[in-house]
Structure formats: C-alpha cells, structure tokens
Design goal:
2 copies of one chain form a homodimer.
Chain A lengths: L3 H4 L3 H9 L2 H13 L8 H14 L4 E4 L2 H6 L14 E7 L9 E6 L19 E3 L2 E3 L3 H20 L2 E3 L3 E6 L7 H9 L6 E3 L7 E5 L1 E10 L8 H4 L3 H21 L14 E8 L9 E10 L5 H17 L2 H5 L3 E9 L2 E2 L5 H14 L5 E4 L5 H6 L4 E3 L4 E2 L7 E3 H19 L1 E3 L1
C-alpha cells in the first residue's frame, strides 16, 4: 500500500477536491453529450475525452481497433462493419511509488441511437440541464461515468498525489454492440489488479451480469402482386411474426428456472426484437424481413449453446410451414455474442469498493447483479476482477435519458477515495 | 366511322405492318427496362418514351404533375412526396377525318421496386432475353404494354393511314402508388370516347377492378434497455404484429360475402403488410414500428368507408392493451385511396375490343375482373369507358418478372386493328 502524505488524505479532503471539479465535469459532460457517438460516429466523443484527459494532466494515447486481432480472440463478438478508423483513448496515471494495487478505470463513449427523437422533450444530442438532471442520449449510459472517472483523477491530482500502482483510464468504443473496444485495450495494453467500470449502477456494486447474444433472423418470402397475395405470395413479414412467437417460447423456458443471483429478478432473461425491416412496396408481398433480436443468457451458459437453441427454435417454427420448410430462415450473428459471469462475494475489489462507498456515502452498497451485459466481462475473462459502479441515470436506452449531476459528483468522490483505498497514494 | 382506303385495310395487312415493327419494339422495351423507373426515378423511362413517340412520328408533349391541382381533385390519392419534377409524356395522333370515335391508349412507365434483387436470376434492371421471354422489373407491368401501344400506332402509320378521331397516347407516372399521373392527363388534356390501358391482361378484357387503400399504421412503444424489457418497456414491433392480426380479421370479413363479378375469386380482397420498419437498436425495446398495408375493396365501397373500418379495427386492437389504449397507433394515408368499378357488359369499347380480339387471335377474350387496381378508374370516373388489355406477363411485382415478346407483338396487332374498328382509318 502507499505511504507518505498521500496515504494520509482523509475522505473529506479527497471529496472536497473532487467537488471542486464539478463545474469542469459538467462542462465536459455537456460537450460529450453534444457528440452523437452512435455506432460509427464515436470519434467526436473521443476528441472530447482526449482533451479531457489532457485537462486531467495525463498524456492520452490512441488504441486503434485491429479487426484481425479482435476476430482472432475468442472473447470478441462478430462484426460486419469496418473498425479501422476507430480508436479507444487511454491514459496512464503513472505510479509514484511501488507497493499498491493497479487499477483500470473504464468507460465507454459510444451510445445507442435515440430510439425516437421526436418523442424526446428536447433533442437527444443537445444536453439540457433541469435542476440536478442533465438530459441527453448517453448522458447516463455512460458519459457521466466516464466524466466521473476523469473528475476523480483530476481531483486527486489537484492534491499533489500519485497512486502506488498505475491507474489506467480507458475511454472505449463499441460497448453497446460488441465490447470489442474494451477487448482491444486488453489485447494492446496492460493488465491490472482490478477494474472498475463507471456504468450507471449508483447504489450497488455490480458483480454479476448476464451474457448477451444478438441474432439476426432473415426470412425470405415469395413476393407477388398484393392482388394475388393469398394465392401466389408468401409474406415474409407475417412469417417473421411467427418466428418471433417461437423465440418467445424459448425466452419463457429460459426464465422458468433462474439460477442465483438471478432468482431475485422476476424476468431476468429478456428477448428483444429490437429492429425489424421488411418488404419494399405496400402492394408487393414482402420478399424479405429481417428481425434483430437481443437475447440474454445466464453465467455458465455459452453463447454457442444459446445460439444453437435459437437456431433450433427458428428451425422448428419453419418446419411447421411448408414454404419456410423449403426456404428456411437464416440466423446471422453480428454484434454481441458473449457470456455472463458472477464474481465471488469476497472478491477484494468488490469488498474494498463497498467499504469505500460506506465510508463516503454513509449507506450500504450491496453487491448486485444486472440483467444487462457490460465490458466488465472482458476483464473478468482475463483474470482481472471487474465491477460496475457509477452515477444515477434514468431511461437509459429510453426517451429523455438523464443523469443526476449530484450523483456524478458523488460517483467521482467514491472513485477517488477508492483509488486511495485500492492503490494507495503518495505525494507526487 | 372512317372512310377511304384506310377503312378497307384488312386484319392481315395491319398485323403484318405491326409485325414489321417487332424488332423496333423489342429495342424500345429493352431500353425501357434498363431505366429503373421506381417511384421518384421515372424520368429515365420518360426520356425513352419521348424518343419512341418521336420514332412513331408523333410530337410528344409534357404533362407536368401539378400537386395543387391533383390534391384539389377528389379522384386523386394522397401523397407526401414532391411531384414537381415529374412529367407524363403524351402525344396526339391527329385525326385525318371526322366521324370516328376518339381513343386514349394509356400505359405507365413507373415500376415497383425489385422486391429482393439478390433473388433474381439476373439483375432486375438489366433486360435479359431467353427465347420468347424478356426478363426485368416492369418488363410486363407494364413496359411491354406501353411499347405495344407505340408499336400499334407505328405499324398503322407505316400503312399511310390516319384515324377518324384523335388517338391520344399517354405514358404516365405513378400508376403503382397513386394513379395521379393518369389523373393529371385528364385534368390537363382531352377526354375521349374510350380508353384502353395496355396492362398485362393478355387473354381477357378487364372491365372490373377493386378499389385499393394504402394505410400506414404507426405504432409507438415505450423504449427501454432490453435488459429490463419485460418490466419497463413496451415493444412497438410486437404491438404491430397484434395490429396486423386485427386487420387480418377485417380481411376475412370482407371476403365472406363476395359481390359479382368477384364471386369468381376464392379470395378477392387481399390485405398485404407490404413494408415494415421498426426499432433502431437490437438492445433497445422498439420505440416505433410502421407497417404499410395495402387493402382492396369492392366496387361500390368507398375508400372512406374502408378507411373507417381499418381505423376501427386498429382502435379495437389498441383498446385491448393498456399501453396502446393510452398511446393509440396512428393510421396515415399516403398513396392509393381509390374506388373500384365494373363496366356494363355491353359497353361498346369492351364489345368492340372483344370482337377485334376474336378476329385477330381466333379465340374468345372474355370480359373479366381483376383483384388489382389500374389507372382505368380515372377514365371511368370521368365518363370515359376504359378497359385493360395487353401482353402476357408473369411474376409482376415478383422475382424474375418476364413478358412474352410474341404476346407483345400480338397485343400491338390487336390494338392496331382495334384502332381501325373503333376510330376508323383514312388514307393520310
């Protein structure tokens, strides 16, 4: 552990130093939210994060995505798009002494699309402040978390201290679709003794998550003039509905027996037909329909197992229909194909962070599970215990997503004290 | 009726003169099929038709679509797109004498999209000849019909004759979505004693057709992270399936009692969910889903009546669901909203054309009905009896659409003799 003046910093000194950075954090957050960092457009956000890390006093580096290296790794998820112009932005807060435990602080800069811009009270990529809330797509998931990481380090550095082992800050891409950004950091960069991802999990420490599979089902029909639809056509849109019903049965099966810690959820395994596109003319029987599904799985279930069950369900539905039996739908994988995990309850990073939280916030932060995936799995897979903790957000992936500014400050304070508790600090 | 040398032309003289134009017709058809005249891209086809009409010896004129004039006419269908750069191309074959009956020969240059290009044996907009068949999107519906009209007039003109009343040739746009192209010709141009539309109805004369309504149903959901789909989300894609089922019940009702002449069809009223689009991310509960439906109606039923039944069916389905009851789907009309019709069986244009057909082809061409709409309704609505007759096509709106070259020649021959029989001919 650390020694010298740094180690003696109190919670109050640290939290005050971080609080002094709140105005800066809000400014960075607003600039980040203004960057519409959906898939393929992440770079505008990385430019903001690069500057923010410089403002923290670190020297940011680029970690470019390497498609071949990613595809060669069994922990990657499949992707059909070009990643050659995508970078993670990382920076090392160099240790000022030996003897501490190293740490990765990770967040993602990419966001999901707005779902329906016209349903938002204000444009999703124009940050809007209303009291403690800052609205915008990605404000909570997880730009405020990224900013809290930067604010924590900036606050600590303002106290003239350094950690007793390297603290690696990572702003990654593609958390929302593959996790390949975080994976690239691990392929290219240093390991650490633990990782905290500042996902919007505000009052608990997330130590367990599901796996996720994205499966795209392509249904082909027999197009014809709508005038003879019933006699000559086979409608791929209608057929896609039948496939969805079959997959709903698989979802029901998967929720029937819920292993711990997922027994606490009424419905831990969610199937989501998230995107549908079919047909090309109202008066033509639809020749094609593609539905993109997201399906969760429990830790211990492999993506390949679940993919096989998806394919079996699709095949059984197709077999029940003469046309589909002859023209079976295709299941494609593009995006998430990843396993879940559950950390042991005595995992030091979780125990230490829970302790930090108790001392800073004054309440308990129980260890918890999430029915979503996060990049934490990559770290765990490589032997780096990883937990999620961050600001309070609402409506992530929804309409009028928002994050609490106070919770962002609080998360930054907890993270800063945690750096002291985990890594140790020394005077710089 | 006409007089002089022209009137004495035999079927054999006329059909031989038209047959001499077949090579020219095939060339024009191939150039037309090469023009991908889907909605918004019709102009490339009109350029071909303009030249073809010049080749026929006529002086083509432009009839520009006038959005305000169209919208003011109760026979128009609603449209949300810009039509200001769209033209019909028309030409008048001037009468050489008085006393005949005038005629409009009408065809549309627009085509529906390819449904699924990758399912075609060859690219849909590259005409491919295989024996008597010419393949391509729109080859049958109805570029070969347009060409047959031009070939008929060219063949007759090669014999040095003129009609005894004006023959108006029309190459129109937007038959496949609104019919507003043909309507504009009627708003801007001359009436006539009859109209023949060279739609692909090869061995019968079509004197009855259904009406068609395009209804677009916009469903709004409650987006959420897929991880909490069942607890917090409401999926618009799933809801759209439920709406489709309700509309299928309306379709079933409408097919239960089939007025003549539609009693001959097993299933005259076809509902078609032709296009679907919903959601924007696999891991986000779909916020929106829009389905574009095509629904037929019997002659005598008004589009407003049917629209009201569609809205009632959608509303009833919505009322059964708490979320949709609060957030009712919206029904929009954009495209076809038109009535059907049935001509009297003794309508002179039908009787005369049937007689012409019998003498040229040697078999009977019964009067028939179609479960589709065509631009014929516009003429009938304005008191111009209109029938459909044209080349033999297969797979219209389908994959590997094709037209018989021999049938195109035959249709041109029938049309040419019909001009003699209907208008009368005189030496030019």
């Amino acid at each position: 552990m650390g020694s010298g003046r740094g180690a003696a910093l109190s919670e109050a000194e640290i939290t005050a130093a971080v609080a002094a950075e709140t105005e800066w954090m809000v400014d960075v957050l607003q600039r980040l939210v203004s960057a519409p960092t959906v898939l393929g457009a992440e770079e505008a956000g990385q430019v903001v994060m690069e500057q923010a890390l410089r403002d923290v006093g670190l020297a940011p580096r680029d970690v470019w995505l390497d498609a071949d290296a990613l595809r060669a790794d069994p922990g990657s998820s499949p992707f059909s798009w070009d990643v050659s112009a995508k970078r993670n932005v990382v920076a090392t807060w160099e240790a000022g002494a030996d003897g501490g435990r190293s740490l990765i602080l990770n967040g993602h800069v990419d966001v999901v699309p707005p779902a329906a811009s016209e349903l938002w009270a204000s444009p999703p990529f124009e940050p809007r402040r209303d009291g403690d809330w800052l609205y915008g797509r990605g404000a909570g998931d997880m730009k405020a978390g990224l900013v809290a990481i930067a604010g924590a380090v900036r606050g600590l550095r303002s106290l003239g201290v350094a950690p007793c082992a390297n603290v690696e800050v990572q702003s990654v891409v593609e958390e929302e679709c593959t996790g390949n950004g975080a994976l690239q950091c691990l392929l290219s960069g240093p390991a650490a003794d633990a990782c905290v991802l500042a996902e919007p999990h505000p009052d608990h420490i997330t130590t367990s998550q599901v796996g996720v599979l994205w499966a795209h089902v392509d249904v082909v029909g027999r197009p014809a003039h709508a005038a003879v639809a019933s006699a000559s056509g086979f409608n791929a849109i209608d057929a896609a509905s039948a496939i969805s019903l079959a997959l709903r049965e698989l979802e029901t099966e998967m929720n029937a027996v819920k292993p711990p810690p997922f027994h606490q959820f009424a419905h831990p395994i969610n199937l989501n037909p998230g995107v549908i596109q079919g047909g090309d003319w109202a008066s033509t029987v639809a020749a094609r329909c593609t539905v993109s599904y997201r399906l969760a799985m429990y830790p211990g279930q492999s993506p390949s197992q679940i993919a096989a069950r998806v394919e079996a369900a699709v095949a059984a539905a197709a077999a029940a229909n003469p046309f589909l039996a002859e023209n079976p739908p295709r299941v494609r994988y593009d995006g998430f194909r990843c396993e879940g995990f559950t950390l042991a309850p005595d995992e030091p990073v979780a125990v230490t962070l829970a302790d930090t939280y108790r001392r800073v916030v004054g309440t308990e932060a129980p260890l918890s599970a999430t029915t979503a995936t996060t990049d934490a799995r990559h770290f765990v897979r490589r032997g780096i215990p990883a937990v999620c903790f961050g600001p309070l957000a609402e409506q992530i992936h929804g309409i009028d997503e928002r994050v609490s500014i106070a919770s962002m400050e609080r998360a930054a304070q907890v993270l800063a004290v945690f750096v002291r508790d985990w890594c140790g600090l020394v005077s710089d």
